[in-house]
From TrEMBL:
Gene3D superfamilies: MetI-like. It comes from the Bacteria. One of its GO terms (cellular component) is plasma membrane. It comes from Nonomuraea montanisoli. It is a multi-pass membrane protein. Residues 60-246 form the ABC transmembrane type-1 domain. Belongs to the binding-protein-dependent transport system permease family. CysTW subfamily. The chain crosses the membrane at residues 7-30, 64-85, 97-120, 126-145, 182-208, 228-246. This is ABC transporter permease. GO terms for biological process: transmembrane transport.
């Protein structure tokens, strides 16, 4: 049965709607003129201007620090949470609570974290954003790892315990290698989410330091410039590279696990 070509029209319309604005941002980042809306010729000068903007460089460094730290926290806690919910404590209520940071609006989560920091009298800074992003991304890591857990062979863990291995040894020698592809995928997802997260960082970072999304927000308040387009193109490249690297490492991990 032949499919009508009209069925592909909604698909391509959706693709164009989603990716055309991104393509425009990348194209206009190579604009030689100062206008962000009129293309006047090819040039790389805005990338040079961007490289000399100390505020952008500081924001990028802060963002990478936050993303790296929160990824470690989210990966460790998310993996342990997934294993605990899937293997030891099965409860729909706990499942809902564990995934709540992923489904709550960012604004609600950000206000809640800010109130909590105020309650415990924690001074705001990069470390407070690291903790906040770790809590936010932990739910996503747990969801990814739980999906991987559903496809693992529990008989290997049972055989390990029957042979005298303790819970820690079984987890480190049997469970963890099977979960490696899911853990890598969850870690890359956590890193990408933290990289461009704005609302939670805005509420929990304080006034002395800024992450890159906050720097971008402060810059576009006075209008979009080709420098912003260049920065957006770079962030797009970083995100794209992270996604491809995560998929590649996941495939390699799955291949090794099968061997």
């Amino acid at each position: 049965m032949r499919r009508s070509k009209l069925l592909y029209v909604p698909f391509w319309v959706t693709i164009v709607f989603l990716y055309a604005p991104i393509a425009v941002v990348v194209a206009m980042s190579f604009n030689s003129g100062k206008s962000a809306y009129t293309y006047e010729g090819f040039s790389l000068k805005w990338y040079g201007v961007l490289a000399q903007d100390q505020r952008v460089i500081d924001g990028l460094v802060n963002t990478l620090i936050v993303a790296a730290g929160s990824t470690v926290i989210a990966t460790v806690l998310g993996t342990l949470l997934a294993v605990g919910l899937a293997r030891h404590t099965r409860s729909r209520a706990l499942d809902a609570i564990a995934l709540m940071p992923a489904v709550l609006p960012d604004l609600v989560l950000a206000i809640g974290l800010l109130l909590f920091y105020g309650l415990i009298q924690l001074t705001l800074g990069l470390y407070s954003v690291v903790l906040a992003h770790g809590v936010f991304a932990m739910a996503f890591v747990a969801a990814v790892v739980r999906t991987r857990l559903a496809n693992t062979d529990t008989s290997l863990e049972e055989a390990s315990r029957d042979l005298g291995a303790g819970p820690v040894t079984t987890f480190m020698k049997v469970t963890l290698p099977q979960l490696a592809p899911g853990i890598l995928a969850g870690a890359m997802l956590a890193f990408t989410l933290s990289l461009d997260e704005f609302v939670i960082a805005f509420f929990t970072i304080g006034n002395l330091q800024q992450t890159l999304p906050i720097v971008i927000y402060s810059m576009i308040r006075f209008g979009v410039t080709p420098e912003i387009n260049a920065l957006g193109a770079i962030l797009l490249l970083v995100s794209f590279t992270a996604v491809i690297a995560g998929q590649r490492m996941t495939k390699i991990g799955e291949a090794r696990a099968q061997d």
